[in-house]
Write a structure and sequence with these properties.
Length: about 140
C-alpha cells in the first residue's frame, strides 16, 4: 500500500523565486543577447516552480520516501523515526512537520492541512514508538 502526501505550495516561494529572477533580469539587461538571458531566467523560474509543486512524501510498506521533483529521493526506515514535531510558523495557518530520525537527521515539510493527522496516524500505525510534540 502506498500513500502519497503532497507538500503545500506557498505564495512566498513563488514570489521570492520570481523576485530573484526579476532582479537578475534587470541586472542582465545591460549586456547583449537580452532575449536569451530572459529566456534562461524564465526557464529557471519554471524549473524552481516545478520542484516546489512536485515535492511529495510517500509511505510504501515500511519506508518513508521524500521526493523533490526528479532530482532528489531519500528513503528512511519508519522504525528509525523517533519524533514528529508540529512546529508553528509565523504567518502560516497550519504547522510544518519535522520528522527526526537517526542521531542528528531531520526532515521538514509542509503537508496539506488535511494530511497532517493522516500522516501522523499512518506513521504511528507502523511504528507506535514515535512521539508527537507541538512546539
Amino acid at each position: 500500500m502506498e500513500k502519497i502526501y503532497k507538500q503545500r505550495v506557498f505564495l512566498q516561494y513563488i514570489v521570492s523565486s520570481f523576485s530573484i529572477i526579476l532582479s537578475l533580469t534587470i541586472s542582465l539587461q545591460n549586456g547583449r543577447y537580452v532575449g536569451t538571458k530572459i529566456t534562461f531566467l524564465l526557464i529557471t523560474f519554471f524549473g524552481i516552480l516545478y520542484l516546489i509543486t512536485q515535492s511529495k512524501i510517500y509511505i510504501e510498506s515500511n519506508k518513508l520516501s521524500m521526493k523533490i521533483g526528479r532530482i532528489t529521493e531519500k528513503s528512511i526506515d519508519i522504525d528509525e523515526i523517533q519524533n514528529i514535531s508540529l512546529v508553528k510558523v509565523r504567518y502560516m495557518k497550519s504547522p510544518k512537520l519535522v520528522v527526526r530520525f537517526g542521531k542528528y537527521d531531520k526532515y521538514d515539510f509542509f503537508p496539506k492541512e488535511n494530511d497532517i493527522e493522516n500522516f501522523i496516524r499512518d506513521i504511528q500505525h507502523i511504528n507506535p514508538n514515535v512521539s508527537v510534540s507541538l512546539t
